[in-house]
Write a structure and sequence with these properties.
The complex is a heterodimer of chains A (193) and B (251). By secondary structure, chain A is mainly α. Chain A is built from nine helices and no strands. In chain A, helix 3 crosses helix 4, helix 6 packs across helix 9 and helix 8 packs across helix 9. Chain A is globular, with a radius of gyration of 17 Å. Chain B has 251 residues and is an alpha+beta fold. Chain B is built from eight helices and eight strands. The chains are: A mainly alpha (193), B alpha+beta (251). Chains A and B meet through helix 1, helix 2, helix 3, helix 4 and helix 6 of A and helix 2, helix 4, helix 5, helix 8 and strand 6 of B.
Chain lengths: 193, 251
Amino acid sequence: MPSPRPDRSPPPQEDTDLERLLALVARGDQDAFETLYDKLSGPAYGLVRKVLRDPAQSEEVTQEVMLEVWRAASRFDPARGSATTWTLTIAHRRAVDRVRSETAASEREQRSAPFPFSVDDVAETVEASMDAEQVRRCLEGLTELQREAITLAYYGGFTYPQVATKLEVALGTVKTRIRDGLMRLGNCLGRSS
Amino acid sequence: MRLFSRRVHEFAGAYALDALDDAERERFERHLARCPSCADDVRRMTSTATALAMAVAAEPPPGLKARVLAAAAETPQLPPLPSAAARRRHGRHVTRSAWFPRLAVGVAAVGVAAAVVLAVLTVSTQNRLNTVQAQNQALAAVLAAPDAQVATANSSTGGSATVVLSYAEQKMIFTSTGLAPLPNNKVYELWLLSTGSARSAGLLPAPTDGKTAPVLAAGLTSADKVGVTVEPAGGTSSPTTTPILVMTLPD
């Protein structure tokens, strides 16, 4: 039975196209890779910059991410998620690895907390605006603790023990709030099965 | 360890957000491999994280694209891993098939292999060499598969095609010779056809001396036929013309 899918980007059709492109990329098709770059570099760069903050480092990591997509395209498994999810998982992992290897931990402490959103945090491209509005609305539907735990972990790149310290709650509490919050967020976004 | 196993479900959210440290991540991934319901949770929550990412999309710096494309042209690609399903199929196939028919196919495959390698070398240029090497590994995996088989068919407009396929690898290598030349705004597109569906398997490259370089297609099943149609340059997502070639594949 099809679950209701509210308007959001990328729609299922686009993901199918991206998967087809990725299959071509896996065979060394450089034209397909250029098209894929045009579609996914914006979300990848935005996410990396959200986590790293520094534009120069973000550009460097985004380049690594897109090259990893090229290099490992044959390892993409559609059974485990869409091409967009695969790419953005690589992007997030790379950004987090970079942020955690940073020696200047004090510098990170001074960064502003990733929530609440300010207007310029979201919707920097027209395509993203629909998602941004919906995500913001759905995040507001979570409890404060769920929302803070999720945004600190995902946008801030913090491990859940670091999140627990920042929020002054028990480790187990953070784990379950992240999990419950993501489930609820998924339901709100219409992504649950 | 026992305690971890019981509570491991709770880690799915933190895992989906990359909020585990390296040791916990590895431990959770080992668990994930034998916990289908955890994998399902992770899939859903990772998809939700994707929405969080899409919400902060931003215009990348203008010079980045040219640098990425140039670097990609110099970067070799990883060959595909055989999927778990392919390995299972593979095991079944080996126990079932007699050695004699495979030997006959092996001899034919060697001939095709020589043609494939020659064609690859012919089309390669210096800046594409890395790409070609990566593709060669993928081609070699099909050619070396114990269940590799060969099939050929003629085109209704002249020329013919030869395919080496492996159901265990779920892949085929398609080559053609003597297909009718096309105007610049048309292209030959390759399809995997099964009842009620046509999946694009890529475009045939421009021929050299009448032969097209091998095209590797993944996702092959024994229910498929192989088809070729003439399409507008750039290809289409479903066939718009009658196939000029349809090949029935061996069991």
